[in-house]
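Backbone-to-sequence.
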C-alpha cells in the first residue's frame, strides 16, 4: 500500500494532513478507495482523524514507542531462544535466506525493502519457534514497528548496523545457542530503543 510506505519512509511526516483529493490524484484512485485506505491505516495506528481537521499522520511519541519496544523485547527474545533451541538445518537455511535479503537491501540503501526484509526475518524466526500467537500480536503492531525501524535506520547515530545485529541473532541460531540468541535480540532492541528515544524526545 503506497500510503503506508509513504508514512513509514517519512515522505508523509507526523502531523501532515492527508487531503483526499490530493491522494486521489497521486494514486489515481477514487475517493471511496482513499477513504478505505485511511480507515485501514487509522486502525493500524498510522493515521489519526481529528475533528475539524480530518486525517493526519499520527504522531509517534516516545511513550508509545517505549511500550512497543518493551513488547518486542519480551516476544522476540523468547522466540529467538526457542528458535535456536529447535531449528533444523533446513530452518537455519530459510533464516539465512531472509538475512541475505536484508544484506541486499542494505547494500542498495533501500529503506523500505530493509524494513520489509527485517519483518520477513522475524516472521521466519517466530515460525521456526512455533510462537504463532506471539507473532499475531507482533503483526498488529507491525506498521508502527516498521515506522520505528525506518526512523532508526535513517539515523547517523546508529552505533551498530541493523544487518550486523541481525547477523548476530542468526549466528546464535545457527550455533544452536538459545541464551546467545536471546541476548542478541535484547542488545539489538535496547540500542534501537535508546536511539528512538533520542530522536523522538528531540522532536517532541
Amino acid at each position: 500500500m503506497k500510503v503506508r510506505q509513504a508514512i513509514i519512509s517519512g515522505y508523509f511526516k507526523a502531523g501532515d494532513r492527508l487531503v483526499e483529493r490530493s491522494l486521489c490524484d497521486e494514486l489515481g484512485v477514487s475517493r471511496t478507495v482513499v477513504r478505505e485506505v485511511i480507515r485501514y491505516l487509522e486502525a493500524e495506528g498510522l493515521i489519526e482523524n481529528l475533528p475539524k481537521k480530518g486525517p493526519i499522520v499520527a504522531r509517534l511519541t516516545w511513550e508509545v514507542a517505549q511500550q512497543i519496544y518493551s513488547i518486542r523485547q519480551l516476544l522476540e527474545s523468547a522466540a529467538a531462544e526457542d528458535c535456536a533451541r529447535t531449528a533444523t538445518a533446513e530452518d537455519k537455511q530459510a533464516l539465512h535466506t531472509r538475512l541475505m535479503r536484508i544484506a541486499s537491501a542494505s547494500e542498495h540503501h533501500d529503506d523500505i525493502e530493509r524494513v520489509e526484509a527485517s519483518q520477513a526475518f522475524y516472521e521466519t524466526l517466530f515460525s521456526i519457534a512455533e510462537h504463532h500467537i506471539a507473532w499475531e500480536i507482533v503483526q498488529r503492531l507491525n506498521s508502527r514497528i516498521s515506522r520505528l525501524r525506518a526512523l532508526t535506520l535513517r539515523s547517523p547515530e546508529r552505533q551498530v548496523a541493523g544487518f550486523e545485529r541481525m547477523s548476530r541473532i542468526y549466528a546464535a541460531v545457527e550455533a544452536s545457542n538459545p541464551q546467545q540468541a536471546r541476548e542478541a535480540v535484547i542488545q539489538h532492541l535496547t540500542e534501537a530503543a535508546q536511539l528512538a528515544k533520542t530522536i523522538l524526545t528531540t522532536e517532541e
